[in-house]
Amino acid sequence: MATMERAGTAALEELEDLLARTAMGDRAAFGRLYQLTSAKLFGVCLRILSREQEAEDALQEIYVKIWCNADRYRVVGYSPMTWLITIARNHAIDRLRKRRAAGTSLDQAEDVPDGTPNPEASAIASSDRAQLLRCFGELERDRSDAVQRAYLLGETYAELAKRFDVPVNTMRTWLRRSLIKLRECLTR
Amino acid sequence: MSSAADKTRDEDHILAAEYVLGLLAPAQVAAVESSLATNATLRAEVADWSDRFGRLTDDMPEVTPPARVWHAITGRIFPDDTVPFWRRLGLPQIAVGAALAAVVLWGAISFDLLRPAMPLRTDVVAEIGRVDTPVHFRAEYDSAASELRLVRLNGGPQPGRALEVWLIAGTAAPVSVMVWPDGAESVELRLPPELARVLSGATLAISDEPAGGSPTGAPTGAVLATGVAETL
Fold first, then answer.
1. What share of chain A is helix, strand, coil (3-state, %, to 5)?
2. Structural domain boundaries in chain B
3. Which of A52, A116, B38, B152 is such that its CA lies 20 to 30 A from the CA of B95?
């Protein structure tokens, strides 16, 4: 699993234990959890939001959510890092979508945060990630971009359709086919 | 294997991926979340997609956040350096009961944290309370859609009690907006036109009420937080 590698030196069991203790209101455990995971989640916020102050505000809210909701971790069946990264990504995406809705975005947020492989990153990437990138590579370039834009920038079907200059239904069909292909490749 | 069965299975896989990506319309999100409670295969598929797409963050470099972020977090969650009351009282402890209703609620409140909300074109906002008030909410209003989103940032009702949200326009009597659903993170509702008209500049307040809300139609318990709705 990618989980252990992603968490750096933090072992899966330790994160599980820290989340369980955080759910019981153990502040020391929460502090340790922050020590082990905040650099990763801050990296995610920075990449998605591109603005440092906003990334700091987002990180603050993410950890308040984690503190208040650690008791929900067990129910959903995610690995600890996936749960934390999902909360962080979704919170950052919420902010990015609000920024776009308010019409104040597009300066720094236009580039796809780089999910495409570069040689250095690929060399040290986990085997799970390498597999994901290989599978994205099997998709047509546009379609791979569209899926990554949805995850990394929170772009909606309407936004993607506009960007790639196709009708929304065509975009939906493209993307849904790409998701089936991705899944086939990943479970091969 | 029949191709019809393949199709249904593919459809579930795609739906799970679209859910994780945040591409579904609100009605579809609600449908997926009610299935999640009872459909273990769909639940596993959602977890798998979250893990797969999560790997797209693997190459994002770790950056140690400045110390002020941790100070701000602890300032918010331990404001008076005692165990915060909402933890002493306990947020709803999730017990997976046999009753379907309980299971559906469990699904709804466990997963709402794990998806992006749909974008609103917010033009009126209110911060109801602050980090050091017993409850702290944010209100965002999209006047084109008449949609009001209330987000619970901190705090919750005491056991056996409820939180009720009120709108107070000028010197008019408080009008009940809603009774907060136990355990909800955020709620979206359509504001009736007579409230929508007076929202900007009005005060939003949250009071402590008996379970089910105020029996009199006016606030009966302590006002826990207030904020003024401001047009952006």
1. 75, 0, 25
2. 3-57, 124-231
3. B152
Please, are residues B208 and B224 in contact by the beta-carbon 8 Å criterion?
yes
A113 pLDDT above the threshold of 80:
no
> For the domain bounded by B124-231, which CATH number is listed?
2.60.40
Nearest-Cα residue of chain A relative to residue B58: A6
**Confidence label for B119 from pLDDT (cuts 50, 70 and 90):** low
Q: For residue B200, what are its two tokens?
A: 């900007």
**Alpha-helical runs (H) found in A2-126:** 2-6, 12-23, 27-49, 52-69, 73-76, 80-101, 119-124
Note which residues in 40-79 of chain A have CB less than 8 A from chain B: 40, 42-44, 46-47, 56, 59-61, 63-65, 67-69, 71-72, 75-79
At A100 the three-state DSSP class reads helix
> What's residue B97's pLDDT?
29
* CATH code, domain carrying A25: 1.10.1740.10
Is there a contact between B14 and A64 if contact means CB atoms under 8 Å apart?
Answer: no
Indicate the DSSP class of residue B66.
P
Range from A87-101, A151-165, B27-41 carrying the lowest mean pLDDT: B27-41
Closest to A90 (Cβ–Cβ): which among B10, B116, B120? B116
Q: Number of structural domains, chain A?
A: 2
Contact B14, A182 (CB under 8 A): no
Inter-chain touch A128–B55, beta carbons under 8 Å: yes
Q: What ipTM goes with this model?
A: 0.85
**What is the rounded end-to-end Cα distance, in angstroms, of chain B?**
57
* Beta-carbon contacts below 8 Å between A and B: 181
Which residues, including other chains, have CB under 8 Å from residue A20's CB and lie 6 or more apart? A70, A73, A74
Of A81, A93, A186, the CB nearest to B116: A93
Q: Is the pLDDT confidence value at A109 over 50? A: no
- Which positions 125-184 of B are in contact with A (Cβ < 8 Å)? 153-154
Interface test with A, best of B11, B24, B60 (most A CBs within 10 A): B60
* Structural domain contains residue A113: no
Question: Which positions ≥6 away from B27 have C-beta within 8 Å?
Answer: none
